[in-house]
Amino acid sequence: MIVSRSASPGSGRHKTVVIADDSAVVRGLFARWLGETGNFHVVAVAGDGETALAHAGRFKPDVLVLDLDMRGVDGPSALPHILRESPHTSILLAATLNERNTRLALECMTKGAMDLVSKPDSRAGMTLSLDFRSEFLLKLGNIAQSATQPGTLPPEVDLGWPAGHTDLRPLVWAMPRYLLIGASTGGPRAVARVLFDIGDALRDITTLVVQHMPPLFTASFAEQVASHVGIPTREPFDGERLARGTVYIAPGGRHLGIDRRLGHIVAAISDGPPVNFCRPAVDVLFGDAARHLGAAALGLVLTGMGSDGTDGAAALRQAGAAVVAQDEQSSTIWGMPGSVVRARHASAVAPLDEIGGAIRALLRGAPPA
Question: Where does CATH 3.40.50.180 sit in the chain?
């Protein structure tokens, strides 16, 4: 079905959208909400993956909203074909979350989907929830703009290593014993890539990850990372002594910090208020690490919208730790890392495909590539 709107799809102000969902009610709601903003042009809707694929190939939309559960070809099956037909289309997943859909959504996000919005369980929740409507419009708007709004940098900001040079050693005062990673939109794929590239050198350090995710996601994300990198990965409990050779994922909806108790570095899990509208928040982890770890920490800020991690990066730098930011070109959204760079808190800026190898070389003392 083709949906007409008064705005021109070629307008520089309006972003083109295809909505793929097996519910006609949901398709209608999404189309109406987007039309009311005046910023989007819904060029087509689809009730199954096959039709979504056809529309993606025809319209090459800026954004495609993709339901996971559809008749015939479902969202996860259609996703790789959609990205092949329209590689510049950003994918926003939409699904009612349960254990199965959580695993499927994570798989999709590691294969190219940018973000997910969790649909309410009931039709009433879908139509009456202002929070859901706001989240849907915010996430769709952010990913629609990410590819067309380049970041601006202040003068004299170091944009990273020269080509072919990835030696982190001049940036650190001491060999790091803790790797701290913060990420949001596009993060599951980026985090998995970095950890995979570091490989068995992860056994030499303790790794803590704050990925902005709801509660159902983080346990499944930990399982996915463990199977991907072959390193023990789990959500820590409050007071757990942090062990080398383990990756700890912040529990969804709770802050992950660091504390020193009885002479040991332990995980500090809390239900404190959101920081930068986020819980878990990267700033909480980075701030605690600055206090308790100092130069023994290495911070890494990956793709994500917003500015979470900027204040924490400043604290890490003041404590003698290095902070690496993902570059704009390889980021899904250059919000978080871009904020760190613009604030001049990044020790280095690098593309995603170089970061893991550089950290591995640092930990193993290998000569730079």
Answer: 169-364
Active-site annotation holds for 88: no
Q: Rounded to the nearest 5 degrees, what angle is found at the Cα of 283, between the Cα atoms of 281 and 284?
A: 70
Cα separation, 75 vs 95, in Å, equals: 10
Strand order in the sheet with 322-326: 233-234, 247-249, 206-211, 178-183, 297-301, 322-326, 348-350
Q: Which of 308, 311, 327, 345 is catalytic?
A: 308
pLDDT in tens, the chain (369 residues): 555 443 333 445 689 999 999 999 999 999 999 999 999 999 999 999 999 999 999 999 999 999 988 888 888 889 999 999 999 999 999 988 888 888 889 889 888 899 999 888 776 777 777 888 998 999 998 888 765 455 555 555 556 666 556 688 888 878 999 999 999 999 999 999 999 999 999 999 999 999 998 888 899 999 999 999 999 999 999 999 999 999 999 999 999 999 999 999 999 999 999 998 899 999 999 999 999 999 999 999 999 999 999 999 999 999 999 999 999 999 989 999 999 999 999 999 999 999 999 999 999 885 544
Question: For this structure, is 308 an active site residue?
Answer: yes
What would the two tokens of residue 217 be? 């996601």
CATH number, domain 169-364: 3.40.50.180
**CATH 3.40.50.2300 domain span(s) along the chain:** 15-146
- Among the listed residues 212, 255, 292, 345, the single catalytic one is 212
Residues 46, 59: contact at Cβ < 8 Å? no
Specify whether 77 is catalytic: no
**pTM (two decimals):** 0.85
Query: How far apart (Å, rounded) are the C-alpha atoms in residues 365 and 201?
Result: 11
Phi/psi of residue 179, nearest 5 degrees: -110, 125
CATH number of 15-146: 3.40.50.2300
